[in-house]
Design brief:
- The chain is of the alpha/beta class and 168 residues long.
- It has one domain: Rossmann fold (3-Layer(aba) Sandwich).
- It is built from 7 helices and 5 strands, in the order ααβαβαβαβαβα.
- The chain has a 5-stranded parallel beta sheet, sandwiched between helices.
- The longest helix is centred in the N-terminal third of the chain and has 17 residues, at 14-30.
- It is globular.
C-alpha cells in the first residue's frame, strides 16, 4: 500500500464515503462489472473498523483495481442475543462467495471472527485473510490455523489475485 495508513484514510469524511457508496450502487444497478466483481463478507474486530472502512472505500473507487461487493456488517447489531446476531450474520455470509478476514493484533481474541470463519466454511465459502504491514500478526484466530487459511498482504493486486484464486 506504500506510505502511512493516514495518507490514504478518508473515512473521517462521511460525505465522501457516502458518495463512493452511491456510485457503487449505481454501478451495481446498471449491471456493469457484474462478471468481475465478487461478493465478499469482511470479518473483523470492532477496533479495526477504520481500516476495514478504508478497504471498503478502496473497493468502491472506480480507479482502483480492487473490486468486490461488500456484504458484511456495517453497523453492530443492537442486541445481546447471540442467536439473533448469528442468524443475521449467517444470512450475509450466504450472499457471498468469499469471506475476507481482516487481521490485526486484536483479531485472534475475537470469538466472532472465529465463528464467522467456521460458519463460512460450513456454508461452503472460500476464506482468505488480509493484513497490513510486512507480515501477518503472530497470533492468528484459531479457526484460521485449524483450516489453513491463507493470509495476503494488503495490496490491491495481492487481494484481487487471492480472490480470483478462490473462484477456481
Amino acid at each position: 500500500m506504500g506510505g502511512k495508513l493516514d495518507d490514504y484514510f478518508f473515512d473521517s469524511n462521511p460525505k465522501q464515503l457516502q458518495k463512493l457508496e452511491d456510485e457503487a450502487k449505481k454501478i451495481l444497478k446498471s449491471g456493469s462489472d457484474e462478471s468481475q466483481s465478487t461478493n465478499i463478507f469482511i470479518s473483523f474486530v470492532e477496533e479495526d473498523l477504520n481500516e476495514v472502512n478504508l478497504l471498503r472505500g478502496q473497493a468502491k473507487n472506480k480507479d482502483s483495481e480492487l473490486e468486490f461487493r461488500d456484504y458484511s456488517v456495517k453497523e453492530p447489531y443492537e442486541s445481546k442475543n447471540a442467536d439473533y446476531i448469528k442468524r443475521n450474520i449467517r444470512e450475509k455470509i450466504k450472499q457471498t462467495s468469499v469471506t475476507l478476514v481482516y487481521l490485526s493484533n486484536s483479531t485472534s481474541n475475537s470469538k466472532w471472527v472465529n465463528w464467522e470463519i467456521e460458519e463460512s466454511i460450513k456454508l461452503g465459502k472460500q476464506v482468505l485473510a488480509v493484513y497490513q504491514g510486512d507480515s501477518a500478526p503472530k497470533n492468528l484466530p484459531a479457526a484460521m490455523k485449524e483450516n489453513n487459511i491463507k493470509a495476503v498482504k494488503w495490496s490491491h493486486a495481492e487481494i484481487m489475485n487471492a480472490i480470483k484464486k478462490t473462484k477456481k
